Amino acid sequence: MNRRAILTGATVLILLGLAISSSLPPALVSAATPAPAPQAPPSDIDPHEAFGSKSAPITMEVFSDFQCPACKTLFTTTNRQLMDNYVSTGKVYLVHRDFPLPMHAHSKVAAQYSRAAAQIGKLEPVQDVLFQNQEKWEQSGDVDGTVAGVLTAAEMTKVRALVKGGTLDAAIAKDQALGQGYKVNQTPTTIIHSKGQTFPIVGVVSYDVLHQFIDQLLGQK
Questions:
Q1: What's the domain count of the chain?
Q2: In angstroms, how far apart are the furthest CA atoms of the chain?
Q3: How far apart are CA 132 and CA 125, in angstroms?
Q4: What is residue 42's predicted lDDT score, i.e. its pLDDT?
Q5: What contacts 194, CB < 8 A, 6 or more positions away?
Q6: 97, part of any domain
Q7: Bridge partners, 62 (sequence order)
Q8: Which residues pair with 193 in a beta bridge?
Q9: Mean predicted confidence (pLDDT) in 177-201
Q10: What is the C-alpha to C-alpha distance for residues 216 and 22, in angstroms, rounded to an integer?
């Protein structure tokens, strides 16, 4: 099972006072990957799998599994507010990384459909429907039918062709290899890049904590 690391309350006080004084926010140490990570975001990000401006001062990579309950929580709570307040305003470049875990029978198929939808410009609605209906397709295995609920027949024809073509597996494997380079071993794991610093955060962090940390990073000289 995936663990949840929800940081709230007193954590905020530590973040405000200490976060910027070291390479890793002390408030997030318990939820952070201790292994070293690259000091700059990857330069070959697929724009179909990202939201916002690539010139934003902060890049966030979210390694996620569509069948992971904690990933659903992060997507539907924290990251939705992040999209509204930081991504849409050009402050954060949010990158989705596929990291399907072997314990989840349908997560790789979901990643394939999501990635296919991204190629036709429909990543956001497909991500949303997969997470919102996670419990249903997890039981039935009907990823195709779930995705069909938010795409037109013509769009589904394109998505199915991409999935059946088998070309998406290499991109998913590339994300997984990148995650392994960051020492990702559970989902969700978020890698924050800012001004040459890298902050790996494991688990679900509340929006209240995250936005205060981001604001400190944005204010850093």
A1: 1
A2: 53
A3: 10
A4: 78
A5: 57, 58, 59, 217, 218, 220
A6: yes
A7: 96, 190
A8: 59, 198
A9: 93
A10: 13
- Tokens 């956001």 sit at which residue? 124
175 in a domain, yes or no?
yes
What gap in Å lies between CA 214 and CA 156, rounded to an integer? Answer: 37
Indicate the length of the chain as a whole number.
221
For residues 95 and 61, the answer to whether their CB atoms sit within 8 Å is yes
The type of residue at 140 is S
| Closest alpha carbon to 141 in 168, 165, 113, 120 | 113
* pLDDT (average), residues 40-50: 87
15 band by pLDDT with thresholds 50, 70 and 90: very low
Q: Which two tokens stand for residue 216?
A: 């400190």
The whole-angstrom separation of Cα 10 and Cα 36 is 27
Is the distance from CB of 74 to CB of 82 less than 8 angstroms?
no
Q: Is residue 31 part of a domain?
A: yes
Q: Is residue 160 part of a domain?
A: no
CA angle 199–202–205, rounded 5-degree value: 90
207: tokens are 């929006």
Q: What is the pTM of this model?
A: 0.84
| CA 99 to the chain's CA centroid | 9
pLDDT tens-digit readout, 16-39: 334 444 444 544 544 444 344 445
Write out the two tokens for 188: 């969700």
* Mean pLDDT to the nearest integer, 33-51: 72
For 96-136, the three-class secondary structure string (H helix, E strand, C coil) is EEECCCCCCCCHHHHHHHHHHHHHCCCHHHHHHHHHHCHHH
Whose CA is closest to 62, among 185, 71, 183? Answer: 71
